[in-house]
Structures are given as structure tokens and as C-alpha cells.
Amino acid sequence: MNITIISVGKVKEKYLRDAIEEYSKRLKRYCKLQILEVSDEKTPDNASEKEEIQIKVKEGEAILKHIKDNAFVIALDLKGKTVSSEELASFISDLGTKGKSDLVFIIGGSLGLSQKVLERADYKLCFSKMTFPHQLFRVMLLEQIYRGFRIIKGEPYHK
């Protein structure tokens, strides 16, 4: 299975880069992983709604350039479906069984995802109604993908 994570912004903190590297290394046993970063646009203080939409559109265009036509796209979105780790594992397994071997997870910037990205998504996933920094969220997503593969394979890790 090929998994691509497209994320807005760079991870600057060394401890987060180290965690991303660790989970990326662990995932090599289960899938081919690619992590793509697109530039985040600067949001001015007191940005208007129109300015925020323009920023999301620009970030969205950069995201969409990296998505292949045959990819199954999972957008991380607060309005998406909340699932357990076991349900996410089952979902990933079912996609593989159905021949969907190119999965793309999309993490938006601080303003979220553009309407076009959300429309391109085949599935919208919500981890929590809480807000997390997108750099930290990348680690959380990788951990859940890793946990999911361990569940799928019946290997110890999940408790």
C-alpha cells in the first residue's frame, strides 16, 4: 500500500521531526510512505473572511497538485467522521481489499482546508473536536496509521 501525507507547513521542532522520522521508519514494514509539505501562507492579524478564503484557496491549489487521479483522498477535517483506532484500521484494510492502494491523507494549515480540497476528498476524518497544531498532528496521524497496521496484522502494540 502507498500512503502519502500532504501537510501544510514545515515541522520546525526537532522533537517532532524525530517522532515523524521514528514512525516513518516503523511504517516501512507495512507500506510505502511519502510525506509532502506545501508552503503555508502567512495569515495577517485580523484577516477578513475573504482573506482567509484566499489563503485556503492558495494552499489548496498547492495540495491538489500532488494528488493523483486514482488516489483515495482522506481529508482531516473537524466536520469529518470520528472513528476508533480499530475502525480506522478496518477502514484502511477494507480500502486495500477493494484495490485502493494509493491513500492520501491531507492535513490543512491553521485555517483548515479549501472547499476544492474538501470536494476532492473521498472521505473526511476527524480525530477530535479539539484543535491541535498541524505539526503535532502529523505525528498523531503517523502513530494512528502505524497502530492501524499493527491491528490489521494482529501484532502486539494496540491496547
Automatic annotation (TrEMBL):
Presence of the UniProt keyword Cell division in the record: no
Major subcellular location class: cytoplasm
SUPFAM superfamilies named among the record's database cross-references: alpha/beta knot
Residues noted as binding S-adenosyl-L-methionine in the record, renumbered to the chain: 76, 108, 127-132
Subunit structure: Homodimer.
Known function: Specifically methylates the pseudouridine at position 1915 (m3Psi1915) in 23S rRNA.
Enzyme category, top tier: transferase
HAMAP family associated with the record: 23SrRNA_methyltr_H
UniProt subcellular location: Cytoplasm
Molecular-function GO term, any one: rRNA (pseudouridine-N3-)-methyltransferase activity
Reactions this protein catalyses: pseudouridine(1915) in 23S rRNA + S-adenosyl-L-methionine = N(3)-methylpseudouridine(1915) in 23S rRNA + S-adenosyl-L-homocysteine + H(+)
S-adenosyl-L-methionine found in the keyword field: yes
This protein's name: Ribosomal RNA large subunit methyltransferase H
Gene Ontology cellular component terms for the protein in this record: cytoplasm
A Pfam cross-reference name: SPOUT_MTase
CDD domains attached to this UniProt entry: RlmH-like
EC number: 2.1.1.177
Keywords: Cytoplasm, Methyltransferase, rRNA processing, S-adenosyl-L-methionine, Transferase
Family per record: Belongs to the RNA methyltransferase RlmH family.
